[in-house]
């Protein structure tokens, strides 16, 4: 989030210019235009930031008070928000204002930290999350776990290449087999990583905690399964959609990821296994299982994971 409350708790790299992430159609033109605001910001970087901040949810709000699709804190919005659609209002909840404002703000803070040692893109992203003062204080990305994870996640998404090579059938089979080996593993909110099931965190929208449960949530399972196939996926369902290549529902094949929700909020992901079924970690109180793909009514998209390399801060 922008200038978030700090939590307890890195050579220059060229920025890509092509929008290779999967972006909801409502926001694609906005991001492509705003992503050319300054040389330090690309459409792909802006799309990755919005994926991390809100999953493209224009109504997103955080416990710390961050608001909208770009998660501006009210004080930051008051100082930096712009009237992007020229309707006479600066509305943090309106993506037509918030998306160009995020690009402008990235450009501004990029200038503020341009002389700080280290990777300029990482420093700019860290300043968006923790404030320019923190980047100056620590001569680079500050040692806050939230900020370091934030920078790492966005950089990995933004580096997703154009003309992406998608998963092979062998990789898809490996992922399906890895997930199938976890049938019966408990659901744990926030649980699961590339190494397997893990205790999760608190709390889900209905208040369920995974702190005392070793298992997987939906995206933890898919992350783990594809890690076994040598493919690094980001952590959340929305991030995984952005890092994958959409395919038409009639062209889906085993191993593809199926996403549920809407452009504003992708809330669930599973692995298609064929025959109209998917393997998933459904919800608190359940375990990893096979389910009919039509057992949920809000299928949003089918997408094929794209191999990419995660870069260290």
Overview of the molecule:
There is one protein chain. The radius of gyration is 19 Å and the shape is globular. It contains ten helices and eight strands. The longest helix is centred in the N-terminal third of the chain and has 18 residues, at 95-112. The strands form two sheets. A six-stranded antiparallel β-sheet has the order 3-8-4-5-6-7. It has 313 residues and is of the alpha+beta class. It has two domains: 25-158, Lysozyme; 169-305, endopeptidase fold (from Nostoc punctiforme) (Alpha-Beta Complex), CATH 3.90.1720.10. It has helices at residues 25-34, 43-54, 74-80, 95-112, 120-130, 132-137, 145-158, 169-180, 218-228, 237-242; strands spanning 198-199, 214-215, 244-247, 257-262, 265-274, 277-280, 289-292, 299-305.
Task: Give a concise summary.
The protein has 10 helices and 8 strands.
Chart the SSEs and their pairings.
Elements: H1 25-34, H2 43-54, H3 74-80, H4 95-112, H5 120-130, H6 132-137, H7 145-158, H8 169-180, E1 198-199, E2 214-215, H9 218-228, H10 237-242, E3 244-247, E4 257-262, E5 265-274, E6 277-280, E7 289-292, E8 299-305
Antiparallel strand pairs: 1-2, 3-8, 4-5, 4-8, 5-6, 6-7
Helix pairs in contact: 1-2, 1-4, 2-7, 4-5, 5-7, 8-9
